[in-house]
Fold each of these.
Amino acid sequence: MSASFRYRPETRLVHAGSLRSQFGETSESIFLTQGFVYDSAEQCEGRFTGADAGFQYSRFANPTVDMFERRMAAFEGAETARATATGMAAVTVALMGQLRAGDHVVASKAMFGSCRYIVEDYLPRFGVASTLVDGTDLDQWRAAVRPNTKVFFFESPTNPTLEVIDIAAVAEIAHDAGATLTVDNVFATPIWQSPLALGADCVVYSATKHIDGQGRCLGGVVLGSEKFIIDNIQMPFRQTGPALSPFNAWVLLKGLETLAVRVERQTRTAAAVTAALDGHKKIKRLIYPGRPDHPQAEVIKRQMKGGSTLVAFEIDGDKAAAFRFLNGLELVRISNNLGDAKSLVCHPATTTHQRLAQAARDELGISDGVIRFSAGLEHQDDLIEDILQALEKV
C-alpha cells in the first residue's frame, strides 16, 4: 500500500501518485508521447514479459496517466485503477471485461441513458442477458438473480431523480449469488461516498464531471482491487484501446487538486437552492439527498457523508412550461453536462433520457416537467435569484 494512504483524502488529492523527472518540477509533467525507447533488446523484451516494470506504449500505460490512476486509487481507497478516454468507456470496459456470452446482469432501471443502453441493448448483442429492477427494492434484486448472474450494476444517486440505493445491502445480495457489484459513483463523487468500503467490487467515474470540474476535457476511470483489475480489466483495456490521453490526464490531475473544495462549496450551494425552492407554488416535486423527506433518507444518512451538487425538481406543468423556465434563466446555462464550475440545468426527458420510451420515463418519474440542476461556484444568492425569476415565467 502506498505511503500516501496515511494522509487524509484532501491531502491525497494534491500529492498522491506524483512522479517527478530529473528536473524536479512542482507541477506534474505531461509525457506527451506515443511510445518509449529501450536501452537494449533485452530491456525491451523484459517490458513485454513483465520482468521490467517500465513503460511500453501509451495505449497500455503512460507516466502522466499513471500519476492520475495512482492518485485516484489513493483517494478512493482502491488498490489500483485504469483511466479511460471517457466515462462511458469506463462503464463499458468495466462491464464487458467481467462478462462472457451466456452471462446475466442485474441493473437498476434508474440510470443515465447511455449506461442503460449498454445494459439493455448493447450487452445482449453478445449473448449477455440483462434484468432491470427498482434499485431501491432489495427484494427485486434478490428475485432477479439467476444461476448465470455474474454482475450487479447501478449508479447512486441516480440520474436524474437522485434515488439512493443501499450499496452495502445490494453488495451482500450480489456476493451471496456469486456475482460482483459495480457502482457508478459520479453523482456522489468520492468526497461524499465510498462504494468500495461499502462492499462494491468495482467503482467507475466519468472524470469529465466533477473530477475535471471546469468543462475542459473528457475522461473516465475504473477502480478496484489489484486482483479484480488484473483478472477483468487489464487485458480488455490493453487490447481494445480506451486509453486516456496524457494531456487529459494532466488536466484531470489539476482538477483533483481542487475537487474537495469545489464539491463542498457546490454541495452547500445545492442545499441552499433546495431550501429556496421548498414550497414554491410552481414546483410540485423537489428531490435532494440530505432532505428529511427524501425517499431514502435513512440510507443516505448511513452511507453518504454529504448531500450532492445536484438538485432535481419538477415544474408544475408540461414541456412548454419547463422550456419557459429554461429559456427564462439568465445566469444558469442549459447543458447536458454536470459537475462544472458553472451552474448548469438540464431537461432529461429531451436530452439524457430522450431515447427511453415514454412508458419507461414515466416509470422512472422523468416527466416533461423534471429539471436537473447542477450547482456551480457562483454566489448562491445570484443563482437563487435567477432560478426564482425564471420560475415566474412558467
Amino acid sequence: PDAQRAKIQADTVCYARAVREREWPAMADGKGSPAPSVWSTDLRRVFREVEGKPVFGMLVSADHKRSEEREERLTQATASIPSAILWFLLATLVITVAALGVCLPRRNNRGQIITLTVITALLTTTLCIIRDVDRPFGGIIDVDPTAITEVQRQATRDFLAHHKAAELPCDDKGDRRPS
C-alpha cells in the first residue's frame, strides 16, 4: 500500500544513511552504532501494518537478510585477536631483538646488524599487517562503504521520485529529525 511504501522507502534511506555516516566510522574502532537500529525498529512497525498481505513475507525475508548482513558486518568489525596478544607479540619481538643485538660481535658486525635490522622490520611489519587485517574498517586496509553508499543513492532516488526531501524523517547523517 502507498502509505506503507512511502514509510518503508523513507526508513530505508534513513537506515542506509545511519549505517554509512554513524555505524561505519564506529566500526573502525570495533564498535557499532545504535543509529541504524532506530530505523530497523521503524521498519518492523510498518511491517506489522501489512501483516497478512501478500507483500508481508517478502518484506520480512528482506528484513531478515538485512539484519543478518548487519550482524556479519559488526562481527567483522570486532577484532578477533585480543589486544593483549598483540602487545605480548610486540614485547616478545622487542626482547628477541634486544637479546640478539647483545649477542652480536663488537667488530666486523655490519652483516649481522643489517640482517637483524631487516628481520626486525619484517617481523614488525608482519605484526602491523595482522593487526590491520583483523580490523578491516579502519587502518591501511580500509573497507569503504561502497555498497551501502549505492543502496543509499538508489533508495533516495526511489523516495524522491514521489516525495520531497523534506519528507524524510532523518537528516543527512541518518539521525531522526525533531518532530
Amino acid sequence: MPVTALVSAKSCGVTTSALALTLASKRPSLLAECDPAGGTLRAGFLQGEVDAGVGLYHLAAAERTSPDALANAFASHLWALDEAGHRKLLPGLTDPGQAGALGRTWPTLAEVVNVLAEDAGYDVFIDAGRLVLESGRLHTTLTPAPLLHQADMVLLVVRGTEQSLTLARHLIDPLRTELTERGTGMDALGLLLIEEGPYRAHQVTEALKTPVLAALPFEPSTASFFTNGGHPPRGYGRSALLRHARTATEHLEAAASRRKIQQDYPLRPAPSGSAQIAGVLQRLMAKGGKRG
C-alpha cells in the first residue's frame, strides 16, 4: 500500500485531509502527524484525550539506541482511532521547539512507515505540514524532508482560489527538483484539491502544470469536527467529505501502482535493517494502539 505525504504552501487543510483519508480508507491505515510546527489533533479532534507521554517526540530518544528500538517505540506510541485498532495515529509534537531533536529520526521513521505499508499492507498518510524552503531546498529542521523523499506520493494540498494557487505555484519547481534529486522521482508529486473557490480540477492542473490526483469537498461542519473535536455532526459517517475521501484513497493507490509498474524493479534498494524492522512491526502491529 502507498505512503502518501501531504504538504501545503500555507494552512490549507493538510491535517483535515490526512485525517479524512485515514478514517475513510478501506484498509488498515496510519496517520503520522509529522508537522515540525506541532500537531493539532491532540487538542482538537482527540479533545486532550492523549497526553504528551504518547507521540512523535519520544521516537528521537529511541532512534539513538537502534532501529529496532525506534520500531518498538513507534508501535508503542500509536493511538487507536477506532475500537478495532485498524486506524492508528502517531500524535505530533506538543511544542515546535522539539523539532530540532528529530533531524536524525526522520530517515529511520521513513524506513519504518515504508515497511509498515509494504509488509503489513497499511495505507500510510503523513501530515508534513507547511513546506519551508531554505535556498531553494526543503528546510532541514522545519520540514521532515526524508519522509517526503521516501514517500510513494507527495500531495501538495491546494484550494481552488487565486491566493492558494499563487502560493502553491512557487513550491512546484523546488519540490520537483527535490524529489528528482533526493526522492523517488518528480512524478511522485501531485495535487489534492480542496473544492473551495472558483477553480475546478482541470483548471488547477493547468495553472500549476501538475495533476490533481484527488479532490475533497469543502465541508465546514465535518472539517470543524476534525479540527476542534466535540460531537460529530449529524450524518457524519455518510458525510460528503468521508465519501469522497474513500474514493480519493482508491485514486491514490492506483496512481502509486502505476508509478511502481513504470519504475525498474526493484523500486529502490532495501534499506539496511528493514528485515529486522519488519519483524518487529509484524509482532507489534497486530496489537491495537493505545486508547484511554
Amino acid sequence: MINGTMKAVVARSYGSPAVLAVEDIRIPRPDPGQIQVRVEAAALNGCDLDLLSGRMAEAAPLEFPHVPGSDLAGTVTEVGEGVTRFAVGDHVFGTAFPRATGRFGAAFCSPLSLTSGAMAEYAVLDADTPALAHRPPALDAERAAALPISGLTALPLLRAGQPQPGETVLVIGATGGVGSVVVPLLSAAKAHVIATAGAADEDHVRRLGADEVIDYRSADVVAEVARRHPDGVDAVVNLALPADRLIDVSQVVRRGGRLMNATYPAPEPGTHERDDLTMDTVYSAARPGDLDELAARATGGTLPAAIGRRYSLDDGPRAYLEFVQQHTRGKLLVAMNAQA
C-alpha cells in the first residue's frame, strides 16, 4: 500500500496550458474495481487540452484540482477489491479519461474507463476495460504509452474503410500521433499511401510507409491529387481538416469510394454532397484484444516508434505548451524518470 504525496501536473481552473503547474498532491488510492499504477511514461493528446479549455465543460465537467492525461504505461502497485485481471507488479498500458467526463469520454473511448490523470507519478484506473492491457516484455514503457489513443483510433478507422491491396488511400494529417499508426497499417495492408506532410516531414512519413507525399504548405492538396491521380483515389482518411473542408476533398474520391474521418465535430450528413460515397466518422474505441494487437505490431516491426519529443514530469506544463505552439511529429511523451 502506497500512501503520501506524489508529484503531478495540475490545473486548478479551466484555461490554456498556462494554468498547468507541477505540484505535490495526494497519491490516489484504488476504489473497488480499480488498480493503482506507478506511471513510467504518459503521452499527450489533444483531448487533454480540449477538456482543460472548458469548451466541453457542459458535457464533460472537470473536478479541480485536475490532473490531465489519458495514455500511460506503468506498473501495478495496488489492486482494489474485486480485481482479478491484474496483480501487483504487472506491467500495464492503456488509456482512460479523467473522472466526470461523462458523455464526452464515452463518445471518444468506449467502453469508458476512468482515471485520476496520467501526468503524475501514480494514477488509478478502472481495471475491467479493453482500454487497459498487460504490456509485453518486448514493448518498453515509452513506446507503449504512445500507442493507446492513436492506435485505438487508427484500428476502427481502418476497420470502417477496409483498405484492400492495391487501393490508393490519401491520408490527410499523416505526421501526428494517429497518422503515425494509420500510415504503417495501410502500408502493411499493401495499400498505396499518399500522405500530406510538410517538406521537413517527408522522410518521416516515407519511413512510416507512405508511397507519395504532398507538401500541404506549398501545394493545393486536392488539385495535386487530381493531377497525379486523374481517376481519383479509393479512399481518404482525414485526420486534420475540419468538416467543411471535406466537400473539396470528396472531389478526388472515385465513385463508390470511402471517406473516413477522425476530426471533431463530426461532419453533418451530406457534407460531401455525393450519394455514392461512404463516410464514417470514428473516434477512439477499444475492443477486447486491440491493445494486444497494437503491442504485437509494435514489437513485430509493423509499427515504427514515432515519439517526437520527450519531457520530464517537471517539464510537463511546458510539454503541453509546446504541443499547442510547435509543430508535432508523432507523439509527445512525458517520461517519469527523465531528467528535467
